[in-house]
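Long-time lurker, first post. I've been practising inverse folding by hand and with some scripts of my own, and I keep getting stuck on stretches where the structure tokens seem ambiguous. Below is the full token string for one chain I'm working on. Before anyone asks, I'm not after the true native sequence, just a reasonable design that respects the backbone. If someone could post their per-position residues I'd love to compare against what I wrote down in my notebook.
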């Protein structure tokens, strides 16, 4: 059943404990740092439930309708349908929001597409994977994930020698009914707004770290679970005109603190198996299904960046300068090339032994790497195209509240083609994209959300068919040898 925005808002009042520094947030609907983001997610649910978007945003199975990101693709057309839904969702957020409901929804869907990988392995619960998936799609669940240990937490000997509590999340007790969790997990983007969170391990675990090898899907309001949020970028003094992206799309990030949190066995996917806890993502379509969504999001963001860059140069009157046209042409080529990389994941799709269709694995990882390597440079290019334009405008939109100031502003900032207000509006938007707190966070996010650069390059390395690549050269060299090519003599 598809939730409306109203139903979404009603469904997240679950007693979750949220801290911003020492401030406990009892009601995110009334807190300026979160209420605007909450309205954005509610609007996203309304968009998804819009009857006019029915065929793009949802699919029917056994007489029920579910969000498209829970579709288990069995054909190239199914992949196109999933990708189209991702694109519609990312366009809603201009590619700024990384943790929309389709991200982890795709991850869980991917896990169900190779349940054979789980079977007969110690500590695995394949029946729970399927039950969790059914629960999520039937209840239109928005889930996020926290699948990385806190930095420095792997040095277990240090904490033991100091008599300190080990910070990495682990199972501290097992009962007939479930497990008790203690410790910390990062970095749950969107947790303030989500219904549930996938706890797991995307980084390798040492074989003896079995108690840290816990993978489960849990509600965010469980007793003993705390969400420690970074400072919200939304503030009382921010208006939508001055910071439209921050105002709408600050999705928050949280460290999750577990203090004797009870998780029933039916919510556990992996337990006490270090290798399996990580490999479930790589050895099922989960990682690929989820990261195609990331690629679609970045393609949308790149198109948005190109749009802003072109409008900025038009407004400054520099668009037809040869060097500026050259820069815009380069950005346009990058945008088109990346869009082709995303489309190629569908055109060169793969099939699994279970009969499912999956986006091309190599192309997904190549696109992730391209985005990670190029985002900062593109942002710098847009900043250069802006020059000092942003700083030439009034501090904020309050200038319009004073008729005398508004008249002065209109007189001196209006050009022959553009009003003062329109110019300020575009430059405020552009600054929110390249120079605000939200923009700075996005720079780090685009670099690290899949993992460190060496990990992304390793994904590309291990998924390259090296024997096939080597055969290109070896087959060519096999066509000739030294005795076959004696010198030509007259």
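-- Answer (accepted) --
I ran through it position by position. Result:
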């Amino acid at each position: 059943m598809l939730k409306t925005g109203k139903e979404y808002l009603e469904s997240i009042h679950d007693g979750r404990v949220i801290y911003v520094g020492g401030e406990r947030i009892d009601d995110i609907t009334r807190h300026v740092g979160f209420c605007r983001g909450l309205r954005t997610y509610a609007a996203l649910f309304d968009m998804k439930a819009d009857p006019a978007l029915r065929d793009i945003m949802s699919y029917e199975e056994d007489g029920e309708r579910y969000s498209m990101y829970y579709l288990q693709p069995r054909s190239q057309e199914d992949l196109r349908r999933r990708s189209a839904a991702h694109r519609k969702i990312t366009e809603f957020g201009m590619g700024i929001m990384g943790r929309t409901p389709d991200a982890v929804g795709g991850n869980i869907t991917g896990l169900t597409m190779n349940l054979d990988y789980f079977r007969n392995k110690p500590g695995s619960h394949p029946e729970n994977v399927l039950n969790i998936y059914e629960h999520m799609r039937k209840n239109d669940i928005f889930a996020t994930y926290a699948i990385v240990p806190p930095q420095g937490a792997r040095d277990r000997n240090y904490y033991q020698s100091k008599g300190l509590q080990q910070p990495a999340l682990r199972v501290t007790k097992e009962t007939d009914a479930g497990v008790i969790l203690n410790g910390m997990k990062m970095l749950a983007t969107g947790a303030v707004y989500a219904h549930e969170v996938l706890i797991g391990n995307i980084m390798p675990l040492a074989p003896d770290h079995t108690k840290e090898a816990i993978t489960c899907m849990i509600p965010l309001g469980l007793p003993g679970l705390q969400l420690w949020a970074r400072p919200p970028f939304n503030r009382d003094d921010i208006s939508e005109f001055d910071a439209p992206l921050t105002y709408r799309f600050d999705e928050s990030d949280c460290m999750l603190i577990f203090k004797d949190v009870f998780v029933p066995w039916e919510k556990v996917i992996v337990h006490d198996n270090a290798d399996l806890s990580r490999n479930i993502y790589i050895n099922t379509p989960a990682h690929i299904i989820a990261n195609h969504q990331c690629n679609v999001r970045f393609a949308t963001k790149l198109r948005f960046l190109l749009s802003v860059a072109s409008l900025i140069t038009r407004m400054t009157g520099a668009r037809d300068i040869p060097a500026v046209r050259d820069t815009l042409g380069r950005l346009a080529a990058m945008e088109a090339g990346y869009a082709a990389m995303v489309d190629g994941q569908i055109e060169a799709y793969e099939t699994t032994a279970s009969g499912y269709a999956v986006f091309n694995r190599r192309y997904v990882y190549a696109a992730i790497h391209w985005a990670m390597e190029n985002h900062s440079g593109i942002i710098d290019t847009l900043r250069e195209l802006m020059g000092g334009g942003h700083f030439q405008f009034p501090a904020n939109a309050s200038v319009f509240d004073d008729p005398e100031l508004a008249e002065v502003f209109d007189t001196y900032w209006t050009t022959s083609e553009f009003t003062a207000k329109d110019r300020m509006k575009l430059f405020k938007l552009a600054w929110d994209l390249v120079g605000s707190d939200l923009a700075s966070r996005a720079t780090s996010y685009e670099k690290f959300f899949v993992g460190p650069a060496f990990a992304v390059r390793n994904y590309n390395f291990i998924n390259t068919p090296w024997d096939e690549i080597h055969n290109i050269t070896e087959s060519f060299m096999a066509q000739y040898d030294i005795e076959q090519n004696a010198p030509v003599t007259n």
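A couple of notes from the structure itself: The domain at 286-470 is CATH 1.20.140.10 (Butyryl-CoA Dehydrogenase, subunit A; domain 3). The chain is about 50% helix and 15% strand. Happy to go over any region you disagree with.
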